[in-house]
Design a protein that fits this description.
Order of helices and strands: EHEHEHEHEHEHHE
Structural class: alpha/beta
Largest sheet: 7 strands, parallel
Number of strands: 7
Number of helices: 7
Shape: globular
CATH superfamily: NAD(P)-binding Rossmann-like Domain
Helix content: 25-40%
Strand content: 15-25%
Amino acid sequence: MSTQSVFVVGGASGIGLEAARYFVDQGVATTIVDVDDAKLRQAERALARPGARLLALAADVRDRASVDQAFATGAARHGDIDALIYTAGVLLPATLADMTESDYDLTFDVNTKGFWRCVQAAMPRFAGQGGSIVAVSSSSGQRPKAGNGAYAASKVALQFLVRALALETAPRQIRVNCVCPSMLKTPLTDKLLADPTRGSFPLSATTPLGRLCTEADVVQAIAFLCTPQAAFITGTAIAVDGGATAGVPLKP
């Protein structure tokens, strides 16, 4: 692990929290940024350990001033940035015919424009040559579902922002990629799996590897993209979905 300082945006819960935990455990100076101050403080306590270099900062990716302030504060504490991990996102289920304009705007403001704001705040703070930016997209960007069209479209847009940024940052050897998880194993999906009204059709039935994605699966992919072993990987979207977007698996 050559990364010395990382920013994890959306780091108070979910994939972001698990990514922050990984980097803290690796001895990396870690700044977590999140809009939810209460969850941020919980994350700070959960990640605290002797010798940990951890900073938790509240900021809203929809607000440029708070984003700029968070990156300035984090860089002042931990020095130049080696990696930016963008995990912030919202999913507001609704059909496109019924979705409100405010929810549509919020979806894109957080899932795509927020990434752009964080990139602009981070770029001057990358040290010289080298570095990694990883955004969390979604398998919905390859295979949308009815009722999450705006979310899927925002994740496709995020993937294209990643590709364009990779071209623009290549002269500085800053690599830019995204990971695309499928449905994650969470307390919510555990409840769905246990719901007797669903019948015998499991949520994992469309995944060739036969199980749901976990936060650990996604974090391992993020971590790899920040290592020297990924030195020639940029401008790509890595599916972390057990083969779900590859096609329809054989029935058992």
